[in-house]
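ugh ok fine here u go
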Amino acid sequence: MKVIGITGGVGCGKSMVMDLIREHFNAYVIKADDVGKNVLNQGTSGYEQVVALFGEEILMESGEINRNRLAEIVFHEPNKRMVLNSIVHPQVKKRIVEEMARIRCEEKYDFFVVEAALLLEDHYEVFCDEVWYVYAEKEQRKKRLMESRGYSPEKIEKIMESQLDEEEFRKRCDFVLDNSKSRQDTLNQLKKMLVVD
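structure:
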């Protein structure tokens, strides 16, 4: 089973790439964002640490963390974002590695594909056989984010500035997947890249 890490800047279409892989290949697909949501659920150590750090004002009436409120705080306070990341990211990575070991034992899949925006920063390449960079032109990414998420140009610019630049992605990844054309074009590239040995 080949382990592939997928990364790229915000708005490049990593989710669409993951959907195509799930639909067309014998691959187990996992997203760090989805795992990250679980590490802040009530009753987890991540939940306890985050509430201790940010206080009960981030909680909803149900006791669950108000993720929008938390995101708003860390978006405006980089130091708090760093602390939050230092709690969440190691737990996410640990769960992904555990899931990879479980899936490997099942021997059902040809590929284990993990997607993470901070894949390189968090050194996922240590357990990946290949790391792919999903590329799309900057203007196209901005347009996608305004349409799909309703982000303002200022918010998009701030997020993009906080991420690795294109040159760094290209330098540190094994392959580049150009996701700036059609869905079919992206699928055609995947068919050439996801070949079972």
